[in-house]
Please model this.
Amino acid sequence: MSFAPVSALSPLDGRYAGKLAPLRPLMSEQGYMHRRVQVEVAWFIALSDAGFAEFKPLTPGARKYLMGLVSHFSEADALAIKEIEKTTNHDVKAVEYWIKSKFEARPELESAAEFVHFACTSEDINNTSHALQIQAARDQVVLPALDGILATLRKMAGDFAAVPMLSRTHGQTASPTTVGKEIANVAVRLAKAREQIAAVKLMGKMNGAVGNYNAHLAAWPDFDWEAFSRKVVETPAPQGLGLVFQPFSIQIEPHDFMAELFDALARANTILVDFSRDVWGYISLGYFKQRLKAGEIGSSTMPHKVNPIDFENAEGNLGLANALLRHLSEKLPISRWQRDLTDSTVLRNVGVAFGYAVLAYASLATGLGKLELNEAALAEDLDSSWEVLAEPIQTVMRRYGVAGAYEKLKEVTRGQAVTAEALHGLIRSLEIPEAEKERLLAMTPGSYTGKAAELARRVGGGQA
Model:
């Protein structure tokens, strides 16, 4: 049975299906089956090379054929496995039977068919498959999307490094900064979060029903099964799986690395929620304009509106992603005794969590691409906020020992409309060196930005 996108239960497979095409082959049920086939084949071939008299090394032709089952795995193959599952009511066993069905008319493989899934518990296949799915999604989709946003932020930090902007702390006017410096702040935070996502080591275990190689040793008591399993797990694909070996587990891999990864991803998403809200506010203040798109409608009744929908969509989808990621990271490391099935059904939603995150990154990228800086609005805002110069004036007064510097400036500026003329009158009355008076008189809200431009350029140049 097939469904049109308009009838999909999830918007990830409906309204937004086209935006998630790179993720779907990796994190869908078909992607899960594909990885299961990969793990079963890698284990089977490795067993043939283990030196057992009962299972001779496979010929080059057989190896090529088996690797082709992995490299050419298709939707039709996935549907065939689903058909077998209708009888087995067991998804991993269905994969095993499908692989064995591919041995027909191949005597070399048919004679060794019982070594498919040999000594394995379902979780030996599942945990490594999930790790491979997550590895591919992280490295091929999530990190490139974050890198795209980072590249844009760094460019904006450099381009707008010297464009002054009024700060607002607690929503009130505060010491000026630059547009580039505010974007640089986000870029630095996101870069650190990105590296933490990339640094998580993805693990896999292949040690049997409760993690002790019980069945393995029953078959070959003198064989070093732990070393063998480590080799299969850690040897790079296609000969192995290219994961980090997990030596201690119950029936399931503990999923601590998943929790670490999902927490790191949620942290990056939180940074982007913060950024999305700030950009939304800057658009509202008029600091940024948005490029118009022909035919696009901002409001069904107000023709003038160009809504910041990309940043709103990003914020909403980041929230959905984080709700799932946090549940995953809290739930998955918990299992009753040697195992229960609560992790199995939850793990099927990792792709959903990643999907909402990737959808949000796409919205952010689109929104950032529409932004145009409105320097006139920025300058106007600064020019109406001369009170922010109370800080440098009172700091210079304190340098030269003028008593009650803070209190004097507070009396003149707090809660009042402050003009350049009023501040200049105060400066001229100060008992400080004339050169300092001239320096303060030359200062404007737009020039009082400290090292903001230098710091922004450092990020824009890729030095931070």
